[in-house]
Design goal:
By secondary structure, the chain is mostly beta strands. The protein has no helices and 8 strands. The model has no long low-confidence stretch (mean pLDDT about 80).
Amino acid sequence: MGHLGTAHGPPRTSPLLPGGRWRRTTGILYHFTFNVVEAGDTFIDLTGWGKGFVAINGFNLGRYWDIGPQKRLYLPAPLLHLGKNELIVFETEGRRNAQITLTDQPIQ
């Protein structure tokens, strides 16, 4: 099994200062969409992200922090919709990723 797919999307808001510097007191909301053909238990790989929380289809899935202990969030199959799904990442540390990796493995 392994890698199930990748969700892509630009940030929905951009709290950047002129020159692309991040405004330290402001979080960033990232909005991703992806399609599901067959729902199954999934893990969201948060490698490269700082600190914040993840929501899937309006459900608060959980918090993450790059110092651990978790590196991936568990996404149970019943929270996934067949077809289009929406994933929101609220990032407080100013990290910017253009994609999120979905996998069926809990750790690398």
